[in-house]
Amino acid sequence: MTTTRYTVTGMTCAHCVSAVTEEVSAVAGVTAVDVDLASGALAVTSDRPVDEAAVAAAVDEAGYALADR
Ligand SMILES: [Cu+2]
Asked: Rounded to 5 degrees, what are φ and ψ at 31?
């Protein structure tokens, strides 16, 4: 079990949080997703390491972007 933390930019409301949660949850191997609206923090828990590009693509699909880190 691995938890990787990212920051999402552009979220403004609970609907944004649910959109990101839904898309990232659909990434293969992801078992839990936690999004904090105020800080943009995204915690992705998975049973194996997940490709950052896959997470970035899912966030993009939801309409937002990962911050550089
Ligand atoms: Cu929103």
From this structure: -110, -25
pLDDT in tens, 12-57: 999 999 999 999 999 999 999 999 999 999 999 999 999 999 999 9
Q: Is the pTM of this model over 0.90?
A: yes
User: Residue 60 sits in which domain range?
Assistant: 2-66
CATH number at residue 23: 3.30.70.100
CB atoms within 5 A of ion ligand 1 belong to 12-13, 15-16
Number of domains in the chain: 1
Task: State how far the alpha carbon of 68 is from the alpha carbons of 1, 11, 13, in Å.
Answer: 24, 16, 21
Cα 45 to ligand 1 centroid, rounded to whole Å: 23
Question: 10 C-alpha vs ligand 1 centroid, how far in Å?
Answer: 9
